[in-house]
Design a protein that fits this description.
Enzyme class: oxidoreductase
CATH topology of the largest domain: Rossmann fold
Largest sheet: 7 strands, parallel
EC number: 1.1.1.95
Number of strands: 22
Helix content: 25-40%
Keywords: Amino-acid biosynthesis, NAD, Oxidoreductase, Serine biosynthesis
Bound molecules: nicotinamide-adenine-dinucleotide, 3-phosphoglyceric acid
Family: Belongs to the D-isomer specific 2-hydroxyacid dehydrogenase family.
Function: Catalyzes the reversible oxidation of 3-phospho-D-glycerate to 3-phosphonooxypyruvate, the first step of the phosphorylated L-serine biosynthesis pathway. Also catalyzes the reversible oxidation of 2-hydroxyglutarate to 2-oxoglutarate.
Number of domains: 4
Length: about 525
């Protein structure tokens, strides 16, 4: 059973994949739970996922942000703890774009102020003369998912759209009918500026007390991204001196906001971080992270991770079975060698070489380390832990795939010891180990296995069978591999339960058996 803690107000409908799964127990923050049980944490922007919180959840494997911004999550601390961070990058794009556009429209037509005026039983029509959007220039800073949706809406209102985004290509700007310009140009040209970047060290105070004077006099400013991208002190200064005509803010440097002069300013309209607060967006982000968390806990890799290399979805789907196989190969080596390993080399051949394999290599390293360290190891921290333990690793791609459509070969070397395992994934058949230390073999890497090295002589298998029979232990499957008749050979047996050590000791008494190692996969 996996235990999932949901701390913020996350859509219950969207949580259905987790709530309905047989092997998942979901706790809300106000329910009783043991912090040591929690393997997954689901948050929005309210929970601060910092070192302090991470240390209270020692078995946490994944933090999922039901939304876009991960500035409430200490990614570095999570990575150090081996915790994968995922988010739902596109589930609230439309809602936030619509909210931003509603804020722009409200701002230029003074709708919130006029609403309060009429509700205050006044009827002041002259006070609320507005500005048309038609023909005006909208400056969009940050032209990602939300920025580009806003551009579509602005163009439908027959506005001109100029954008600044250092990562925007000319062809994408052209395709979306916007003009891409340096920030200074956008600042000089725009009648309204809306920001849609993440909050980073580069975007903090992007518009500030020293540069807002460069904007057109009478400009309107909008921030529905993150508090601080437009510096609040600078904004207030230029509102007060009349350079800025008005501002619409959904987000604040401190939330709830403490800057009363700004919030209460008569030309400022505000909402309490409502960009993503629609039924649809909340369902989308909750459902998206629930599916990802479920997949992750069930041993599958995720495609939206913040602190893992990103793999395009179509490649991710193809490469996904190899992650589990890779971890198992790593685990086989780790359990079979039982001695210090200094170097691991992963060789890929066949169609798998068409893909980016570095993350797969990290999976293999994680699978290897899992049996050897007492902390959580996964693709996120495998490289760091391997380095810490003095294990170097590398990967290469070769042409020889031994007749299989794909091959992963892992060689682990230590002082006077070397072991090689070769595996493949066959569509419709599954994962197979096809070679071990010079022996061709063919078995499925799962369950409770016994890896036996012996001499190929009549009677060895019979003696082994007798011991299992005596202990009423049923052999589920058995695979044998040898190089030469009468020479060294190996056996891989599988069982329905873990084998008792006394039984292994008895097996080792058989003269032609040189080693018998249990592998739990
Ligand atoms: N108010 C809300 O409820 C709400 C909801 C969703 C998202 N957001 C915020 O909106 C932000 C944008 O969301 P998105 O989904 O469009 O993200 P996105 O990643 O698709 O787009 C962000 C864009 O900003 C650009 N960028 C990065 N650094 C920049 C810089 N220094 N100058 C200019 N552009 C820069 C990037 O190239 C990217 O195109 C999020 O980071 C989040 O903080 C707020
Ligand atoms: O980054 C986001 O997704 C938005 O800011 C939404 O935040 P929320 O989930 O706290 O509403």
């Amino acid at each position: 059973m996996f235990h999932v803690l949901v701390t913020d107000a996350i859509s219950a409908d969207g949580l259905a994949p987790l709530l309905e799964a047989d092997n998942i127990k979901v706790y809300r923050n106000n329910e009783n739970y043991n912090p040591k049980d929690i393997q997954a944490l689901l948050v929005r922007s309210a929970t601060q996922v910092n070192e302090e919180l991470l240390s209270t959840l020692p078995n946490l494997q994944v933090v999922a942000r039901a939304g876009v911004g991960v500035d409430n999550i200490d990614i570095q601390a999570a990575t150090k703890h081996g915790v994968v961070v995922i988010n739902a990058p596109d589930g609230n794009t439309i809602s936030t774009a619509e909210h931003t556009f509603a804020m722009i429209s409200s701002l230029v037509r003074h709708i919130p102020q006029a609403n309060s005026n009429v509700k205050g039983l006044e009827w002041n029509r002259k006070k609320f003369i507005g500005t048309e959007l038609f023909g005006k220039t909208l400056g969009i800073v940050g032209f990602g998912r939300i920025g580009s949706e806003i551009a579509k809406r602005a163009l439908a209102f027959r506005m001109k759209v100029v954008v600044y985004d250092p990562f925007l290509t000319e062809s994408r700007a052209e395709k979306l009918s916007v003009t891409s310009l340096p920030l200074e140009e956008v600042m000089k040209m725009a009648d309204i500026i809306t920001v849609h970047t993440p909050l980073t060290k580069d975007t903090k105070g992007l518009l500030n007390k020293s540069n807002i004077h460069m904007l057109k006099k009478g400009v309107f400013l909008v921030n529905c991204a993150r508090g601080g991208i437009i510096e609040e002190e600078g904004l207030l200064h230029f509102l007060n001196n009349g350079h800025v005509a008005g501002a619409a803010l959904d987000v604040f440097e401190i939330e709830p906001p403490t800057n009363r002069d700004l919030v209460l300013h008569e030309r400022v309209i505000v909402t309490p971080h409502l960009g993503a607060s629609t039924k649809e967006a909340q369902y989308n982000v909750s459902n998206q992270v629930s599916k990802d968390v479920l997949a992750f806990l069930n041993g599958h890799s995720v495609s939206t991770s913040i602190n893992l290399p990103t793999i395009p979805k179509e490649i991710y789907n193809k490469i996904q079975p190899f992650f589990q196989l890779g971890k198992k190969v790593g685990s086989i080596l780790s359990q079979a060698m039982k001695t210090p390993v200094e170097e691991i080399t992963v060789t890929y051949a066949g169609n798998i070489t068409e893909w980016e394999t570095s993350i797969l290599t990290k999976s293999i390293i994680a699978g290897f380390l899992r049996n050897r360290v007492d902390t959580t190891v996964n693709e996120v921290n495998a490289a760091a832990i391997a380095k810490e333990r003095g294990i170097s690793y590398g990967e290469k791609h070769i042409d020889e795939s031994y007749g299989y459509s794909n091959i992963i070969e892992v060689e682990a070397k230590g002082k006077d010891i070397r072991m090689v395992v070769r595996a493949t994934f066959i569509e419709g058949y599954g994962a197979r180990i096809v070679h071990m230390n010079g022996f061709d073999i063919d078995f499925s890497p799962k369950g409770h296995l016994l890896y036996v090295q012996h001499t190929d002589r009549p009677g060895v298998i019979g003696q082994l069978g007798n011991i299992f029979g005596k202990h009423e232990t049923n052999i589920a499957t058995m695979h044998v591999g040898r190089m030469l008749q009468g020479g060294k050979a190996i056996m891989m047996l599988s069982f329905d339960q873990t084998l008792d050590n006394r039984l292994i000791d008895e097996i080792l008494q058989i003269p032609d058996i040189s080693s018998a190692i249990t592998l739990d996969l």
